[in-house]
Write a structure and sequence with these properties.
single chain, 230 residues, mainly alpha, MetI-like fold, 12 helices, 80% helix, globular
Amino acid sequence: MSYVWEQLATLDWPTVQVTLRLALWTTGVLLVLGLPSAWFLATRRFPGKSLLEAGIALPLVLPPTVLGFYLLMALGPQSPLGRWWEELTGWRLPFTFTGVVIASVLANVPFAMRPFMDAFSGVDRRLVEAARTLGASSAGVFWRVVLPVCLPGILSGVVLTFAHTVGEFGVVLMVGGNLPGVTRTMAIAIYDDVQVLNYTRASWTAGVLLAFSFGSLCVTSMLGKSRWRV
């Protein structure tokens, strides 16, 4: 056991902190913005809905470096968004933690939205209609009826988003580069350690990510089973 602690102590802990901060910010933003968006998509029909859903799922099949390249161009100083941000703040988005958060949010949209939408789609409409008959407002129905029923599915989306962000490599590297303490994540640290032949630290960092990923999938599986019992 002492050997394990000694090896864990050699990990790049500032990089671990950056990784966890990025995962927390990404998950929080997608939870706040994704829940109402997923509820709207799950309960409404409108022209172009299929195209919008395809766009949401696009990061699942698009190579991370391709997505990262387009995001780098979209956030760079030559783009309208990049120029606006630089005029507003005085600094650029690429190769900053804020830029990485924006890119990570966009790259992780399907990992949050799909579980949210699936959970909302499974809500028994009779419960919603009964609550409205009793005088509940739309907001009241959402908070008091829909969310409690969909909580396991929502938590699944939260866990998947957090876990995927922790292991993100291509998008983060393209948009944020490799700045220690700023944009350097654990996945990038593994790549750097392999480049300098530090296989010992790379294997321990990879082992931590492997254990975390496996645990996240176990939690997601348990939440999925709970959802079916609701």
